[in-house]
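Weekly sync notes, structure subgroup
Attendees: PM, AL, DS (notes)

Item 1: joint prediction request from the bench team. They want all two components modeled as one assembly rather than separately. Inputs as received:
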Amino acid sequence: MDAFAHIWGPVRLTIELAGLTTLALLFVATPLAWWLARSRVWWKETAATVVSLPMVLPPTVLGFYLLIALGPSGPGGFIAGLWGARTLAFTFTGLVIASIISSMPFVVQPIRNAFAAIGDRPLEVAATLRASPTRAFWTVALPLASPGLLTGAVLGFAHTVGEFGVILMIGGNIPGRTRVLSTAIFDYVETMQWREANILAGGMVAFAFAVILSMMLIEKRFARMRG
Amino acid sequence: MSAEHAIRAEFRGRLGAFELDASFSAPAKGVTALFGPSGCGKTTVLRCIAGLNRLAEGFCEIDGQVWQDGERIFLPTHKRPLGYVFQEASLFPHLSVRKNLMFGAPRGERRRKAVAFDEVVDLLGVTPLLDRSPRNLSGGERQRVAIGRALLSQPKLLLMDEPLAALDRTSKGEILPFLERLRDRLSLPIVYITHDISEVERLADQVVLMQAGRVGAAGPLADVQSDPSLPLATARDAAVTLEARVEAYDAPYGLLTLAVPGGRFAEPAAPAPIGERRRIRIVARDVSLARERPGPSSILNILPARIVSIRQIDSNEIVASLALGEEGAGARLLARVTRKSWDALELAPGARAYAQVKAVALGPQGDNASD
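Output from the run, pasted for the record:
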């Protein structure tokens, strides 16, 4: 029973981190995805590439730059100064910011695809029915793209839970503050606590299974709705 | 034609490889058909009127209201009081039929509505479908809902882009009567795109002929149909459509007498109330010509007329436009005859002739007797 109490800390922190990150991502990624799907400016794909970079970069590289950005001499240090702290590195807030950036492409991509799949027609129909662009977005585009939003949210959550390199670089694995599931497993293995590592790893397998299954079910529902 | 009751549209510009230079004006009343082959720019013109496409050189005025004047004025689509029916019904798949219908309806009960929900639902026969999802509707049902949805947004102009083209024969036959009822019951101007001449003949009051991005001719249906210099008159199935009034019914013989300016026709038909207005269609091939009044004949309709103009279709046939009446002041008909008979008759524009009309096709019995 003692092991569970020990494990619960990182699990709770992980859920908080992934939940907050996903929520923030939906607010940031949805307008960004809408813009990427509908804008006709020439540098659109350049912007999309920048957003996608975290998908390809080694997590240590991303973590390195984030460490500099969130550290005392970066913009993160300036923001932290607003409430009297010295840095955002090695804090929970820093982890959330880092997770938002590193999980962004996994959320933007499915939402962008969903918006693109709607096509021009439903929005044209809405406009001929006196719907302003704002109303058309809320009452037509968003509901029609909702499976994409759901997919994006699930992927963003899962990716944040699974993030290791970036977290280790800027979080520092401080128990109760920045030690999340993935870094905790690493720690348990390092200190030969096989039982704890086993429980966490097994839980992650079950979690990943649930994520992929739910994604497939969403896809299926999506296909039915379009057909 | 005063600007208050007119549709004026002028659009010039390049869209991809396509060059559009179309301008026309038509009364903002009844059905104006934009007719022409596929790819001639009809849809682009309609989209420009709706503001869905934007050409820098464009002018659009509806019923005295300027919707576009070059770059200076451009009302966005959602601020134009129009209804648009696309070729595919394009219903919102995430909303029920009822919510689709109500999507564009102005909110607030106090505002007096020209088109009431119950009336439209009843007119289009979609009452049993209201709580269903658009996914489970047939093509014809979907298109009817799309028409109703456009009407309930209380438009001042209804734009229809080949609403029947994507439908099978049965569904077409199911929707055409609705469109006729719509035209007759609501005083709503309609611009209707089609490449099917039979839809023009059944629905249109005015026609705008389009060809390769340009307007060839525009005017009242019968005028455009009966002008031999325009392509409609030389088509194989050329016909004229006339507005006739029921004058008498001969019960023993079952014959309806239909009067048009300059003449009257007798045609076997079901009884109809005196005074009712009916659309009649006379095919050019069913009209033959005689120089003198023929003797006893099985043909019931032999009418004096004058030749107005002619055009040779090919080496074998000519088409002649006739004006009914001794003085040639009445309605126009088309006669398609062989060149051999034409030469034998020694007729020429201005000459008197007798038109022998073998068949008169009657449009459906409408409820348009009021006007």
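Discussion: Residues 2-38 of chain A form the longest helix (37 residues).
Action: AL to compare against the crosslinking data before next sync.
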